[in-house]
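User: For my dataset I need records formatted as: sequence, then C-alpha cells, nothing else. Please produce one.
Assistant:
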Amino acid sequence: MLYARDYWYCLSIVLSSRRYCLSRPWFECKAVRGFIVNGYSVSGPLISATTVGSLTWLVSLIYFQDKRLLAVLGLGVLIALLWLDGFRGRKPDRQGSRWFRLYFSLLPCLLFLVYVYLESVFGYFDWGAMFMHAGAGMLTPGVVLEYLWNTGSTMLVILVVLLGFGALKARGTLTRGLDVALMAFFLAANPMLTRPIAAAIHPNPLHDFLSRRFVDVTSLTKPAETASATVAPKNLVHVFIESAERTYMNEAEFGDVMGPLLEFDRRGVSATNMVQLAYTNNSISGMVAANCGTPLLITFFTSRQYLEEQSQFLPGLTCLGDALKARGYQQNFVTGWPLSFTGQGTFYSTHGYSSLFGGPEVVAAVAGRGNSFGADDAEVLDLSFGILRRAQRDGKPFSLTIAVSGGHAMDGYLTDKCIGKTGLSPQAPNILHAVKCTNMLIADFIHKAEAEGLMANTVLALQSDHLSAPSAVTDRLNKYERRNFFSLSGDGIPSKTYAGLSGTIDIFPTILDALGMPLSNDQAGLGVSLLGDQPTLCQALGQDQFDDAIYAEDVLVRSFWQLKSTRTAVASEAEPR
C-alpha cells in the first residue's frame, strides 16, 4: 500500500528531477534519475565501509591485544554488508526511504559506544567510580573541556557510527532481523550492563570473604596507654603523586622521568611489586586505600545520603587520620584540585583533618596564577612548605598530606617552572615532561626541608595514587608489568626492597607501623605492614581472586557507610585556614 507521505515523497523526487532535466543534457538527466530512484546506490559501499571501519577502530581502542583478529572480523562484517547491499539492490521495486531511519539497536549501540569511550579515556569502567564522581564532585569545567578537546576525534567517530547504522537502516541493508541481532550483540558485549545483571542473577560466593579477613583498628582511636612520655611521636609527610607509577622507572623506555625520586626510594622501604587492585584505580580510591587499608567500596544510595546530606565520607571506617587525631596530631591536607573534587575534602575532614587547602585556597594563599583545574604543583608545594615550617615550629606532632597533579592524563600539566628544564627530549610527549617536572619539584621540596631541619623525626611516604590513565604513552607502558610506586623512609626505617605482591591497601598498616602504632599481627584493614614478615593478602590470594572478592563484597560496604556513634568530626568543623 502506498501511503500519502510516500506519494508526496515520490512526487517530490519526480518534480525535482524534472526541473533538473529541463536545463541539462539527456544523459545527465538519466544519470541523476537513476541515482535518486536507486536510493543512494553509489554511496552504499562507502556507507558500509565507513560504518564498519569506524566501529572497528573504536573497539580497537580498548582491546589492544586483539587488533589483528579485530581487523579480520571487521573485514568479514564489511564483506557481508556489501553482499547484502548488493542483494538488496537486485530486489524488485521497493518503498522509498529517507536518508536516515531510527533502528532497534540505536540505544544499545549508544550505550556500548559510551562504554567504549569511557574505557578508552579513563582506562576502566567502574559503576562505583561513576557514582562517586556524580555524588561527590566532578572534574572542574576547565578539565572537562580539555578532555572533550583531546577526545573530539573519538566522539566524531562515535557519531559517524550512529549515523552510519541509521543510513544502513534507511537503505534497507540493515533489515529488521539484522537490526534485532545487532541489538542483542550490543547488549551482550557491554560490561556496563552485563556485570550488574550477572551479579544479580548469580550471587558471588565471595560476597562476605573480605569481611572475615578485615582487621578493624578502632582501638587505635583510644588514648595510647603504653607510649613513653620521653619519646616524641613521629611526624608524617605523605605525598600522593598523580599517576607516577613505578613503570616509569624503565629508563630505556621513558628516560629518567623518575630519576629525582630514586634517592628517596633507596633510603627506606621500597615496594617494587605493588599492583592496582579493584576499586583503587582513581585518585580518591587510591587515597582511601592508602589511608584506610581497603578499596573504595560504594553503595550508591547510602553513599549519596552521607555525602550530600551529612557531609560524611566513609564515616564507619577507622582510617589513619582518626588514629592520629586521637594522639593529638595536627593534620593538614593540601591539593591542587578543588576540595569538592570526588569528595576529597569531605574524606579528610571526616577522618581527623582540620586544615584543608584545595586549589582555589592554594592559589589565594600563595598569590599564584593557578591552572585549568586549580593550583599547579609548584604552588601546592610552596604552600605545603610553609605549613611544614610552621608545624615543626609549633612542636606538636603533625601529619602533612600533599596531593600533586602534574602527571594527570591525558596530556599532563607542566608547571611553568619546569619549561625547558626537564632534560628530556623536546620530542618526548608532554606527559613525560609533566611527570618528570613534578618529581623534580618534590625532590627540591624534600631537599630544602632537610636543609632547614624540617624532616627531623619525620616519616616520609611517597606514592603514586594509581596507575596512569590512558595517555600518549599508554601503549609503551602496557608493554611491561605495570606497578604502583611506594617508598617509605625516615629515622629508624630500614633500607629494604619489598618484592612480594602488594597493593596500595598495604600502605595503611605500613605507615601505622612506621609511626609506632600497635598492630595485631602486622595487619590493619585488609592490608599488611611491609615492614614485617607477614605475607600480604594479595600474596596469599593472588590478584585475580582478590579482585573477585572485592567485586563481590557486600557486607563491609554497608558498615563503612554507616555513621559510628562515636564519630564527632564532620566537614563543617574543618574550615580551610
